[in-house]
Amino acid sequence: MSTSAKFKDPYQTVTDIIINHLENGVVPWRCPWQREVGMPRNFHTGKTYKGVNVLLLGLRHLPSPYWLTFRQALELGGHVRKGERGAHVIKVGESPPSQNEREHAKESDEPQRKRLFLREYTVFNATQIEGIAFPAALNIPLLSPHERIQAAEQVVAEMQLPPVIEEGSTTVACYRLATDTIHMPAFASFESAEAFYLTLYHEAIHCTGHPNRLNRESLIKQDGFGGKVYSQEELVAEMGAAFLGMETHLVHDAHEQSAAYLQSWLDVLRVKEHKRWIINAASNAGKAADFILNRASRDGSSTTSSVAT
Description:
single chain; alpha/beta; 11 helices; globular; disordered C terminus
């Protein structure tokens, strides 16, 4: 087997998984977890998965939130049942700078850039493992419609460095960078309160890219509707709104997954040069959601979101 055949590109692997779901009529970032099960987490470390891993594990729709690698299961005295197929997760690592890079940084007095790389792992759900006494599923109680809306309102009200939000000033929701304002159609024009807040979340994610917040390149370097940068930023906003929806148990209605919407993302993600978009967008979306939830500092670092855990 050739070296190229052995090499697996994590970016392409993740993109292929997302494309497969889109081709089957499923928008992976619209509801990337099961509310009654809870966020997927590694049973060995106790940490919840973040970024794109929420999508990759949530899409399996298994009844336990707990996952382990094959080796972790063995270390804990269990084993993966024969024939079980695991799920992909991505972990980000950091390579030390080369000698040339260190010398250049010293001579130019420039800060050394981080060199990140991705590693792909396979994990198995608790339902696929024997010999370990996993806790019962979290069985998170679903919030009532009234409680969900209360929680949604609280997220917006407590956002740090909030933009001005104008309701009823437009027929199309949008965020305007020049004025740092969110413009929303009238509340009554939405089919439901959940639809209103998920749309507001989408625009709020956009606003986190403002230079005074996270200074996100995909927002600042605008290239117009349908452009490459525009599409990257839209993917961040779509995922970020879903991550905020997780916090308040809000989900998009299934009928919103129209054929045109699905096809638009398939057209974008099938382009080979765009294979990094999913992972990068999920990472930026997690940082944006954490900023709105007051879990991140203004420099874009985050206490809970990363490409992987």
